[in-house]
Structures are given as structure tokens and as C-alpha cells.
Amino acid sequence: MKTARQLANEIVAELAEAESDFAVTVAGHACAVEMVHTASLILDDLPSMDDAKTRRGRATCHVAHGEATAILAAFALMNRGYEILAEGWPGGPSAAGRAAIAQDLARAVGAAGMIAGQARDLAMTDRNIDFPTLEFIHSRKTGALFIAAAAVGAAGAGATASARQAVIAYAKNLGLAFQIVDDLIDATGAASEAGKDVGKDLKKTTFVSFAGIEGARQLAAELIETSQHALDAFGAAAQPLRELARYVIARRR
Fold first, then answer.
1. Residue 193 in this model has a pLDDT that exceeds 70
2. Which of 6, 18, 85, 159 is 20 to 30 A from 188 via CA?
3. Model confidence over 231-243: pLDDT tens digits?
4. pTM of the entire structure?
5. Rounded CA separation 143/138 (Å)
6. CATH superfamily assigned to domain 4-250
């Protein structure tokens, strides 16, 4: 099953009116982004991080295969993702273009992106934090990879600068809304429906603990509305991305 990020990456290519060869390239890039994303989940679930027991309705990688194998699997996935980005595809980006795409993804994952958000999140366990810090954590821990998926899709398809900025604005708001919904699922959902452990964030400040359940729902709805407005210039061509945003706000897992 394709994830929200993978679908967004492929749809962005369609918005950019990619040629068929470009579409094949971007599909490969979508797989690369998802490999990096899955690697981040394996690491996030480790006993030294969130110590999660289930993910996507199954035992987490370290529970099923051991911690050492899980760490190796995460690094293998991440390296394979970058390997795919480095490969040349017929009609795809030039070597310089592929390097720029890989750099976008590396920034999303690195010390200023997902890693920064995870590090701050772990440091804030059992501590009260303010809203700017909460937004910092989730804009990097979750939002950075949404933005990267949009940027990679746009770059791989040769989108204009204005189109690229529009889909990045869409992805930024969508990613934050996704995290808020994640917080709501953790606070109110059932593990059987969510497909992963719930109640793991009880010792952390989340959007739910900060704004309450209804406040968090309202904030997520506002972010989804803002994300959709960012697509106005695309007209009907952006309808699949609007549908994706509606799925994010309604999802239960």
C-alpha cells in the first residue's frame, strides 16, 4: 500500500505535466523517499527511542527480527533510497539535477531536519514545552519529509519555480496537520484500528495536550484548508492532492 508521502510525490509529478519518462523517474524517486521514511520509522520504534511494539498492524522491526537487524535494515533502506536517487533514468534529471534532489532529501533527514526534530522530542520527554518548540519538533520530525516528497516530485518532473513553491507550501501545512492527527490518534484511538501503539505520548507535550482534543482538531482543519489554498493556481489539476488532504484529516491510522 502506498503511503501519503509516496502518493503526494507521484501526484506532484502529474501536476508538473511530466512526460512518461519523467513519470517513471518520479515513481522511482517516490520509492526512494518511502525507503528513507520507513528507515526513520524503524529507528523511531527502537527501545532507545519510542520503544514501540507495533507498526502498520504488525510487530515492529526490532521486535520481529531483533534490535541489531532493525538498525541494519534502517541503514540499508536509507542507503538504497539514495542509491535510487543517484541512478540515471531515461528522460530523467541530469547528474546535477539528481544531486540537487538527493541534497533536498538529505537536508530533510539531517541535523536540521528529522534528526533535529527527533532529538528535541526525546529531550522534551516529561517536560512542559511552549507552542513554538512543539511546532519546531513536528515541522522537522514529520513536516520535513512531506516537504521533501513535494520538492523531489517537483524537481524530478522539471516543475517551474512557482509550481515548486506552491506544492512545498501545500506539503508544509499538510505535514503539520498529519502530525496533529497522529497526536489525536495516539490520544483517542485504539491500537487495533491505528495499527500501532497508542498512548505513547502521555509523557510528552503534544498538540492534543497543548490545545485539547477539539482545539487540535480545529487546528488540523485550518492547516488542511491552508494547504488546499496553496494549490489554487493549479485549478482542477490539483484535485488529487486536495483529496489526499481530505484523507489526512479523516484518517484513523
1. no
2. 6
3. 998 888 888 889 8
4. 0.79
5. 6
6. Farnesyl Diphosphate Synthase (1.10.600.10)
